[in-house]
Design a protein that fits this description.
Elements (H helix, E strand, L loop, with lengths): L3 H21 L4 E2 L2 E2 L15 H18 L1 H7 L3 H15 L7 H32 L5 H19 L2 H10 L13 H40 L7 H15 L2 H11 L5
Antiparallel strand pairs: 1-2
Helix pairs in contact: 4-5, 4-8, 5-6, 6-8, 7-8, 8-9
């Protein structure tokens, strides 16, 4: 029986063989003439004006920002707390890889868009729209785009975390929040999100641990010590989760943790 890896190798060889046959028999020729294929060429030359170089550097900076955009979405929004909470929920249920990671990440992403929609609206109105109309410079665009994100992170960051990174930065304290740089605010916010995610995970574990204890004690009293308790408790966990409308309850309370500050 062919393994999955061997089957993929056979498919790749068939595709390669088909392409070779096509080129050898001039399949890509139309009307007896070969179709002209595009020739992509990138040249680095000299520039007569500094503006050309500045524009090129701006393009490179924009590409760099796009590259790290997934990290920004994960670290500067509510995504971290949500995905950690859902992961603990799945572990507490004991359903292994169900729901799969793709479903949890997709749900976390759309919940993040729901929670962050007021912040994204402010970024669009205060930064993106004026920049697209040419009313502000690129530097002003990044500064104004960070303001709504800073407001959100300040509303969720813990004071002790801000004090920790303020002291580690070598500065005793800041008089105003506006004086706190992003290099202090961002790690403080991330550390707080990790802590809150683990707190939610602990709370989610409690009812399912009770079910495990009851099932384990019952099996031991019946003398069925060789029967795995997790095998018996899993259906009861799922049943309890369905009866209390678990997904609705968990999602609602996770969202409320971002509004009750």
């Amino acid at each position: 029986m062919i393994s999955k890896r061997g089957f993929k190798l056979i498919i790749y060889l068939l595709i390669l063989f088909t392409l070779v046959i096509c080129f050898e028999t001039n399949v890509f020729a139309v009307g007896g003439n070969d179709v002209a294929l595009p020739n992509v060429d990138i040249n680095i030359g000299t520039s007569d004006t500094p503006q050309d170089t500045a524009a090129t550097i701006q393009i490179l900076l924009i590409l760099a920002v796009i590259t790290i955009a997934p990290s920004l979405i994960i670290l500067l929004t509510s995504f971290t707390r949500i995905i950690i909470s859902l992961h603990f929920l799945r572990a507490a249920l004991g359903t292994q890889q169900m729901p799969p990671n793709q479903v949890l990440i997709g749900l976390s992403l759309f919940l993040t868009l729901f929670i962050m929609s007021p912040t994204f609206t402010k970024i669009n109105e205060q930064a993106f729209q004026p920049y697209s109309r040419g009313e502000i410079t690129q530097q002003e665009f990044f500064t104004q785009a960070m303001e709504p994100l800073r407001e959100f992170m300040f509303s969720q960051a813990e004071e002790k975390d801000l004090v920790l990174f303020t002291n580690l930065s070598g500065i005793e304290s800041y008089e105003y929040k506006e004086d706190i740089p992003n290099s202090v605010l961002i790690p403080s916010f991330i550390l707080g999100e990790l802590t809150k995610g683990f707190k939610i995970g602990f709370i989610l574990y409690i009812p399912f641990i009770v079910i495990d204890m009851v099932v384990s004690s019952t099996l031991m009293a019946m003398g069925m010590m060789m029967l795995p308790p997790a095998l018996i408790s899993a259906p009861f966990k799922i049943l309890l989760f369905i009866m209390v409308d678990g997904w609705n309850l968990v999602v609602e309370n996770i969202i409320l943790t971002f509004t009750t500050r």
